[in-house]
Structure formats: structure tokens, C-alpha cells
């Protein structure tokens, strides 16, 4: 978990980034990912950002939808060693403060992917 700067339609704002959610193969399907993401959300709410975002393969987006995340529909750019590049994975967001709504427009994440 880290706080990074996002930019949509020229507005920059902090977001919490989640990454590295992995459950040992032998223990999947028992609610452990749900538990760890919910604990991470509780921590993220203390970090002062209105949103959390994550990158995931399409076949895992169902897990995150169940946990209140929504797909970012616009183009997403992230930092790479030689400049900004398109994010090939799905990007998902979730509000951390009541009523926060994701803005429309191209998203630039001013960070390497996490
Ligand atoms: C994806 C992963 C983290 C899920 O862990 P898990 O502990 O088995 O997930 P949970 O048991 O907590 O699942 C919570 C809910 O999400 C659902 N879910 C889990 N994985 C899902 C998936 N890939 N697609 C859709 N739904 C999924 C479960 O069915 C469950 O639903 P329910 O509460 O309605 O029964 C695990 O399979 C994993 O480590 N995969 C490899 C690494 C990885 O892909 N990490 C994610 C990177 S974005």
C-alpha cells in the first residue's frame, strides 16, 4: 500500500494504491483475500486520500467488484523508466470517503505501477 499522485483532466489528487494481493494456492477460496483487502481499506481510510486504486488482470476484477471497486473506463497512463506508458491491466477504483465519485477523463498515475 502506498500513496501516489493521480491526475485526471488536469487535476492532481492523492490516491492510495493497492498491490501484491496474493493468497497461497492451498488456502484460496476461504475469504482470506476479502479479509486482507478489507483490513487494507480500513488502513487506507486513515491516509487522507479520497480514493484507492489498483491494477489487476481481468479475470480477478470480480473479486474486487465484490469489495466495492469499479473499473476505470478511461485510458490509464503510468510511469515507466522512459516516460509515461499505457496500463495494459484493468484499473479499478473505490471511494474512501463517503460520496467521493471518480472523475471522468484520462487518468495519469504519477508512479511506477504497484
Ligand atoms: C485472487 C486471489 C487473491 C483471491 O484470493 P482468495 O482468498 O481465494 O479470495 P476470497 O476467498 O477472499 O474471495 C472473496 C470473494 O471473491 C470471489 N473471488 C475470488 N477470486 C475471484 C476471481 N478471480 N474472480 C471473481 N471472483 C473471485 C470469491 O468467490 C469470494 O466471493 P464470495 O465472498 O461471494 O464467496 C487469489 O486467487 C490469488 O492469490 N491469486 C493469485 C494472485 C493474484 O491474482 N492476485 C491478484 C492480483 S490483482
Notable traits:
8-stranded mixed sheet, 36% strand, globular, binds coenzyme A, Aminopeptidase, 8 strands, 17% helix, alpha+beta, 114 residues
CATH class: Alpha Beta
Strand line-up of the largest beta sheet: 4-7-3-2-1-8-5-6
Shape: globular
Residues in helices, as a percent range: 10-25%
SSE series: EEHEHEEEEE
Biggest sheet overview: 8 strands, mixed
* CATH architecture title: 3-Layer(aba) Sandwich
Please tell me the overall pLDDT. 97
What is the third-level CATH name, the topology?
Answer: Aminopeptidase
CATH homologous superfamily placement: Gcn5-related N-acetyltransferase (GNAT)
Number of helical segments with 4 or more residues: 2
The beta-strand count equals 8
Q: Structural class of the secondary elements?
A: alpha+beta
Share of β-strand residues:
35-45%
- Estimated radius of gyration: 14 Å
Describe this entry's structure for a reader.
This protein is an alpha+beta fold. Helix content is 17%, strand content 36%. It has an eight-stranded mixed beta sheet. A hairpin with a 2-residue loop joins strand 1 and strand 2. The longest helix has 13 residues. It is globular, with a radius of gyration of 14 Å. The site of coenzyme A has 16 residues, from helix 1 and helix 2.
Amino acid at each position: 500500500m502506498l500513496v501516489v499522485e493521480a491526475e485526471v483532466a488536469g487535476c492532481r489528487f492523492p490516491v492510495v494504491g493497492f498491490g501484491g494481493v496474493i493468497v497461497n494456492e492451498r488456502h484460496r477460496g476461504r475469504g482470506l483475500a476479502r479479509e486482507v483487502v478489507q483490513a487494507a481499506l480500513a488502513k487506507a481510510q486513515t491516509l487522507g486520500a479520497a480514493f484507492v486504486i489498483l491494477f489487476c488482470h481481468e479475470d480477478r476484477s470480480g473479486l474486487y467488484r465484490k469489495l466495492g471497486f469499479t473499473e476505470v473506463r478511461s485510458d490509464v497512463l503510468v510511469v515507466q523508466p522512459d516516460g509515461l506508458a499505457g496500463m495494459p491491466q484493468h484499473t479499478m477504483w473505490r471511494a474512501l470517503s463517503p460520496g467521493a465519485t471518480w472523475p471522468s477523463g484520462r487518468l495519469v498515475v504519477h508512479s511506477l505501477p504497484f
